[in-house]
Amino acid sequence: xxxxxxxxxxxxxxxxxxxxxxxxxxxxxxxxxxxxxxxxxxxxxxxxxxxxxxxxxxxxxxxxxxxxxxxxxxxx
Length: 76
What we know:
The chain has helices spanning 2-19, 43-53, and strands at residues 27-31, 37-40, 59-63. It is α+β, with helices and mostly antiparallel strands. The chain has one domain (2-63). It has a three-stranded antiparallel β-sheet with strand order 2-1-3, with helices on one face. It is globular, with a radius of gyration of 13 Å.
């Protein structure tokens, strides 16, 4: 499991380098198993494109330029 997680983190960093800084604030949906990804301003749209290729896909989403997809609570 550790090797797979390390590979996923490497792929996520590679995607981040490709999309920053031109797509700050957009959503990247990444297929956990294959590393395939889609980017869009709307997370539903990005995920739907991945699901169109593979209905059983497991997706991880990140917002370009942020640690959060959404944040709740006060800004401290």
